[in-house]
Amino acid sequence: MPVNLSAPEPASLLPVAGVRLGIASAGIKKPGRRDLTLIELAAGSRVAGVFTQNRFCAAPVTVCKQHLAAAPIRALVINTGNANAGTGEEGLARARRTCEAVAELMGCTTEGVLPFSTGVILEPLPVDRILPALPAARADLAPDHWSEAAQAIMTTDIVAKGASRRLTIGGRPVTVTGIAKGSGMIHPNMATMLGFVATDAAIAPALMQQLVKDVADVSFNCVTVDGDTSTNDSFILIATGQAGNAAITDTAGADYAALKAALCEVAIELAQAMARDGEGATKFMTIAVEGGRDRAECKQVAYAIARSPLVKTAFFASDPNLGRILAAIGYAGVSDLDVNALKVYLGDVLVAENGGRAASYTEAQGAAVMQEAEITVRVVLARGSASATVWTCDFSYDYVKINAEYRT
Amino acid sequence: MPVNLSAPEPASLLPVAGVRLGIASAGIKKPGRRDLTLIELAAGSRVAGVFTQNRFCAAPVTVCKQHLAAAPIRALVINTGNANAGTGEEGLARARRTCEAVAELMGCTTEGVLPFSTGVILEPLPVDRILPALPAARADLAPDHWSEAAQAIMTTDIVAKGASRRLTIGGRPVTVTGIAKGSGMIHPNMATMLGFVATDAAIAPALMQQLVKDVADVSFNCVTVDGDTSTNDSFILIATGQAGNAAITDTAGADYAALKAALCEVAIELAQAMARDGEGATKFMTIAVEGGRDRAECKQVAYAIARSPLVKTAFFASDPNLGRILAAIGYAGVSDLDVNALKVYLGDVLVAENGGRAASYTEAQGAAVMQEAEITVRVVLARGSASATVWTCDFSYDYVKINAEYRT
Q1: Which residue positions does UniProt flag as site: Involved in the stabilization of negative charge on the oxyanion by the formation of the oxyanion hole (chains A, B) (predicted)?
Q2: d(C-alpha B83, C-alpha B153), whole Å
Q3: Residue B225: pLDDT above 80?
Q4: Residues of chain B found within 8 Å of residue A356, distances taken between Cβ atoms
Q5: Contact criterion met (CB < 8 Å) for B404 and A227
Q6: DSSP string spanning B271-327?
Q7: Among candidate residues A263, A298, A241, A221, the one with its CA nearest the CA of residue A50
Q8: Residues of B whose CB is below 8 A from A83
Q9: Measured between alpha carbons, how far is residue A341 from residues A379, B93, B259 in Å?
Q10: Residues near B171 by Cβ (< 8 Å), separated by ≥ 6?
Q11: 8 Å CB contact between B297 and B343
Q12: Known binder of ligand: residue A408?
């Protein structure tokens, strides 16, 4: 059961000038399932992406990187039901074949198409089913199909994920809309399992790569469900430039800051949605680590807690077995950490200080916080001024069930 | 259900000259449970240990390190039901109080006593229950109480763990006997949750520390259940010197090699028993990585597979969803790994090569291996001659159940 998460109202996902989306059923895994999404971008759109660091990266990830370097992007094609990962040379050929077919249909170059796949690893991409379904996806293209696209890219997700923001840049209204999917194999290392955020803002191409990285680092790169980094993680930022604002060319200016803030808001909402909809989730957990020497060590400690099966099963049980949090902090790999100086809070309750349980702490206090559906663990390292926040969910019977039965 | 593991017959655990063991009930967590173990060592015994790298290391671990550096060790005292971890200064004081009481009873110095605790973290050690039970443990001391001790140090373990070997050194019969406990919070980083191996061989004190480290590195440091490194991991090697062999002084000689081999056999059997008896285990998995540049990168890849909740739930389901193994190899952190060069085998079946599924592989082959209770995953990295093996178990509903209900 997703934690405090419902699918966005279709009308709440605002169209972005220059972006049209179309959906179709290719019957990749199950007949009738809407599993194919085509996104058309207007001429002049700027596109940048960040991708998984997994060495076994999927064929479409490799092709995306090549195409982003080669040409202006005019279309994205996304299939679920098959990840086209662990598929070798033949996988690359099939990803390219899909791009060729889309290019022909859309009247752009093959390099102008970005392919994305998500689903089972190690099985050949069924291009014989995808190619015949492309015309239907093209015929479905519309500016207001964000909600349908959010649905069509889901795999084990229970709830479709999307968010929009409106802002003004240089007196012009600007829109930011994003969709994402992801529920399991979530521990992004660079980006996450398919996130797409588009804006109609105009922005200099030279700023796009840093912007997508900065947004990913505070959103998709701060979430984990099971600690497994996917082979297909891709986060794509699109700027169509159709809002009519004078193109943003300066990262120090207010316009850049405003756009980045809106993009981060959308991306963080999508990333949190992944943890809220994490496989088998019954609780949404925020792990906030502060007072570190740098952000990296804060993140290291936060991820150690967020990944620990022992911590996650205790939260599932609503059991304030908080020694497990201390153990995770201790093995996080911060080798000179002074455990006597740090403090641990569960919600607002001080749990641990001076290397042990706080004198003021009572089991009843911990048990009360544990009953909540959304819980913050706060760790104060007391050795610097850096901080980092990671979002995750608990570990339930249903996580095991979902992943034991994934292919059945 | 432990995988192909039963408790050792009491008679199969051979007495080690110079070692006596006594058990008592202190009622630490549950009344009547035999939860206190005393081990007496003859004068002249050599003792060395390796301990957890967890920064939140337990009070007894800190005290053990101090006492090992200070004095010849004459006694060990072990309690279950409480880890005395995350207990700050008061925890250290209580561990020392326990050592003082044992020292008084046994007629040795306080520094001659090593304390060990295992159980719940973040709760004060109930010395008021432990101290009154010590005389009963002392009265119970006997050379043939290894089996009872193996029972008494268990926590969530279902099966008691112990092993013995006999060998000859310099014409004298030598015995090696070890016991261990561990079932959850198992991902030792240096040693594991309470392992004790004793021999009556005579060996120069200068060789002990390297020997205990070498033995731990191929046994307890090669097992994981849930990826959580405990606060209390301790592996202790005892050499009483009572076998009458000329003391081993040379690590290059045949005697050292023979003793080390016997110690490794016992330690590996105990380490494997932890994975076989891993919380909720239904399958015992061996992850063997070979062809690496060095042992460290082989271990990194093996642990990435062994820790992955997605891999472990697939094994629980007997589902050859082997793309998850590729994904884990890919995110293991070997940044220049050539995924097209490596091979993956499930049992004897070639699963993946050339970056994808092997042409010869069939789902039926994979499904057949997955039915077995003991499964080897072999990864050939094809970039060097180093190798490493890690043992683990699958991830089942019962893991969640055991850890959700741990304190109830």
Answers
A1: 118-119
A2: 12
A3: no
A4: 86-91, 122
A5: no
A6: HHHHHHT-TT-S-EEEEEEEEESSHHHHHHHHHHHHH-HHHHHHHHTT---THHHHH
A7: A221
A8: 323
A9: 11, 19, 44
A10: B245
A11: no
A12: yes
- Please, are residues B94 and B58 in contact by the beta-carbon 8 Å criterion? no
Pick from B174, B16, B182: nearest CA to B83: B182
- Contact of A294 with A203, CB cutoff 8 Å: no
Position B90 scores a pLDDT of 94
| H or E, element range at A70 | helix A59-70
Q: Does A270 share its domain with A322?
A: no
For the cut 80, the answer to whether the pLDDT of residue A389 exceeds it is yes
DSSP, collapsed to helix, strand or coil, labels residue B166 as strand
Read off the CATH number of the domain in which A373 is found: 3.10.20.340
Which residue among B54, B334, B404 places its CB closest to the CB of A55? B334
Please list every residue in chain B whose beta carbon sits closer than 8 Å to the beta carbon of residue A86: 323, 326-327, 352, 355-357
**CB B309 to CB A399 under 8 A?**
yes
* Per-residue tokens: A311: 């911590």
CA distance A378 to B99: 36
Q: Give the N- to C-terminal CA distance of chain B in Å, as an integer.
A: 20
Best CA proximity match to A164, nearest among A265, A275, A48 = A265
Is the pLDDT at B369 greater than 60, yes or no?
A: yes
pLDDT tens-digit profile of A287-327? 999 999 999 999 999 999 998 988 999 999 999 988 889 98
CA distance B392 to chain A (A): 15
For residue A141, give both structure tokens. 């293209």
Same domain for B56 and B170?
A: yes
Domain-ending residue, one of A252, A276, A300: A276
Cβ distance A43 to A159 under 8 Å? no
Beta strand segments in B122-241, E: 161-169, 172-180, 195-199, 234-239
Query: Cβ–Cβ of B407/A321 closer than 8 Å?
Result: yes
Q: Which two three-digit tokens encode residue B83? A: 């880890």
The CATH number of the domain holding residue A93 is 3.60.70.12
- Half-sphere exposure of residue A5: CA atoms within 13 angstroms, side-chain side: 27
- Given pLDDT bands bounded at 50, 70 and 90, which one contains residue B205? confident
Helix (H, G, I), strand (E, B) or coil at B352: strand
Whether residues A321 and A226 fall in one domain? no
Q: Which of B215, B249, B276 is the last residue of a domain?
A: B276
Say whether pLDDT at A190 is over 60.
no
- CA angle, A310 then A312 then A314, to 5°: 70
